[in-house]
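Design a sequence for this backbone.
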């Protein structure tokens, strides 16, 4: 990216964040002016465009509240029941609990905003890390098929929409090693193979390794383990493996495998043959300066795995985005993953915030800040005793649930994410992502959130360290068939210094892990355990690669590989069976909790 372009983009961020209040006023004014006559807004505002009336009369909603409007548009009714803007496509959000994707209306303005975020971030990265223009990024990026809706418009994941956007094709794509045809290929294994092969052929140009969400990494490492011999053989012979048959992948590869390169194959093979793959990323790509992948929120479970394979290269979570709206970017990209905050960009949407009582003493009696207490917040909002606040009025240290209003027909829509204010960039707040407002596990009246489960597992992981084990990925489910019900965790482990998949698990250590998880869960869980209303927690260790099968299952049901987030908690029977059929050891918490 040219210096003048970087400066221009950085200046734009400064201007926008300095005028956060004005930008937000402008955006709401514009939305109301354009959409006051839609069926939806008209019902509450009767054609008026006053901002105060909007806040007073338009309700705060969830997807379920507006689903009937969206379904009508998907089925072919004119979109002006929600927006007067021209709808260009539907974006499918992965943010569901019931397994069905949510449809989000998208306009040219939405696509342009979505595409502008990586551009702005690119400028921020250039500011913080020198010399990025001297090389490329090996980004593992995959597209997903779109499908037609009865309205005649296509529906697709936001990652697919972004990858085929003009902004990506004409600008950002130039910063990556892989040709666009391969990125847009719908054959994921062939695309992954070619992306890695080109990345290795161009290894001396590679200054960063990336994807969007960190959950792509374990999949990529497993793929390399299964295919490195073919990759090295292709490099050695200058001939692409015959199983790469897709023209989208095969044709562009021809310009990379021009002639045999035994020198490179000789260099790579010993790296792959090494018993330990610790730090392999830096050995394969010695000039890589950082890993670009989102590791905040539920993605934090991959930090250990990425640290292990990358030899602790900085991991940079660049932006916070959703299918419904773009939120913000990480203005201090070199902060440690646990200290990442995202600065909200005030021209992306109109943002409001529901205060969430995270530190309430009630929590000790079980009223979590997720689910339950948020319902309380909404109740309070309805009876006027709590105040939903504007972007510029959020308070340092306070927790909030984010609510968005967009030109594309979302009005006071609860995205479902809980954020904490950690500071301000000019007048715009910076937020730490706390969690998706999901109750992960629930038995009886105990409700354990994703964040609480993640913290408890982190505490237990310490038990594994002296034995050389690394927890690479986990999931869970609430076994409500047992009496009493109990929580079951699936863990995929690997040995730090070896790639062997034959693990000798020490039952004392594993039982201690079960116990540490239980001890680290909250007051109500421990109370219910002591009262025997919840049974002993169980850890089921699964074979290496089991979670890849889980991902394949969700992808076969329509999940986008790039947007895939390993479910923290499984609710679908077939998904539980996939992991259950790959269990190599079962361990239980024993004894009484202190
Ligand atoms: P989707 O609906 O598939 O677009 O997913 C959007 C959701 O992914 C957001 O609402 C968040 O819950 C999550 N998400 C997106 N960006 C981040 C991030 N940087 N850190 C943590 N979670 C994120």
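Sequence:
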């Amino acid at each position: 990216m040219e210096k003048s372009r970087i400066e221009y983009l950085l200046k734009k961020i400064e201007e926008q964040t300095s005028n956060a209040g004005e930008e937000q006023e402008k955006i709401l004014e514009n939305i109301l002016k354009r959409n006051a006559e839609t069926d939806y807004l008209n019902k509450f505002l009767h054609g008026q465009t006053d901002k105060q009336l909007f806040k007073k009369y338009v309700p705060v909603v969830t997807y379920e509240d507006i689903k009937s409007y969206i379904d009508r548009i998907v089925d072919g009714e004119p979109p002006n029941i929600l927006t007067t803007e021209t709808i260009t496509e539907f974006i499918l959000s992965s943010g569901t609990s019931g397994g069905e994707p949510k449809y989000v209306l998208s306009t040219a303005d939405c696509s342009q905003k979505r595409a502008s975020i990586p551009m702005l971030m690119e400028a921020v990265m250039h500011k913080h890390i020198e010399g990025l223009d001297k090389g490329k990024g090996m980004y593992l990026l995959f597209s997903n098929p779109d499908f037609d809706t009865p309205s005649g418009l296509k529906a697709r994941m936001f990652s697919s929409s972004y990858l085929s956007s003009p902004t990506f094709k004409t600008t950002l794509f130039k910063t990556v090693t892989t040709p666009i045809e391969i990125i847009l290929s719908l054959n994921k294994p062939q695309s992954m193979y070619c992306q890695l092969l080109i990345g290795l052929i161009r290894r001396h140009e590679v200054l960063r390794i990336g994807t969007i969400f960190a959950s792509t990494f374990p999949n990529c490492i497993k793929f390399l383990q299964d295919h490195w011999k073919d990759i090295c053989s292709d490099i050695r012979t200058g001939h692409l493996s015959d199983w790469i048959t897709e023209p989208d992948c095969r044709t562009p590869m021809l310009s990379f495998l021009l002639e045999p390169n035994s020198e490179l194959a000789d260099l790579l093979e010993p790296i792959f043959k090494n018993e330990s793959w610790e730090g392999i990323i830096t050995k394969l790509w010695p000039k890589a300066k950082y890993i670009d992948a989102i590791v905040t929120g539920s993605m934090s479970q991959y930090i250990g795995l990425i640290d292990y394979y990358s030899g602790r290269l900085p991991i940079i979570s660049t932006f916070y985005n959703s299918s419904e709206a773009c939120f913000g970017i990480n203005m201090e990209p070199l902060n440690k993953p646990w200290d990442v905050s995202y600065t909200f960009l005030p021209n992306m949407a109109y943002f409001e915030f529901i205060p969430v009582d995270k530190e309430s003493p009630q929590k000790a009696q079980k009223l979590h800040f997720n689910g339950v207490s948020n319902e309380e917040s909404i109740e309070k909002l309805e009876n006027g005793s709590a105040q939903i606040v504007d972007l510029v009025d959020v308070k340092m240290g306070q927790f909030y649930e984010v609510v968005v209003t967009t030109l594309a027909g979302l009005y006071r829509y609860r995205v479902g994410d809980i954020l904490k204010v950690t500071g301000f960039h000019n007048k715009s707040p910076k937020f730490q992502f706390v969690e998706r407002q999901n109750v992960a596990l629930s038995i009886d009246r105990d409700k354990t959130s994703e964040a609480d489960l993640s913290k408890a597992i982190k505490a237990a992981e310490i038990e594994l360290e002296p034995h050389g084990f690394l927890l690479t990925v986990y999931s869970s489910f609430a076994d409500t068939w047992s009496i009493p019900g109990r929580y079951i965790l699936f863990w995929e482990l690997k040995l730090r210094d070896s790639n062997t998949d034959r693990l000798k698990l020490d039952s004392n250590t594993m039982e201690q892990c079960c116990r540490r998880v239980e001890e680290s869960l909250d007051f109500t869980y421990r109370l219910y355990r002591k009262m025997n209303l919840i049974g002993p927690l169980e850890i089921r260790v699964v074979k290496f690669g089991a979670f890849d099968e889980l991902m394949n299952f969700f992808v076969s049901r329509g999940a986008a590989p790039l947007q895939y987030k390993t479910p923290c908690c499984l609710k679908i029977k077939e998904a539980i069976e996939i992991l259950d059929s790959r269990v190599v050891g079962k361990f239980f918490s024993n004894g009484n909790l202190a």
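DSSP finds 21 helices and 22 strands in the chain.
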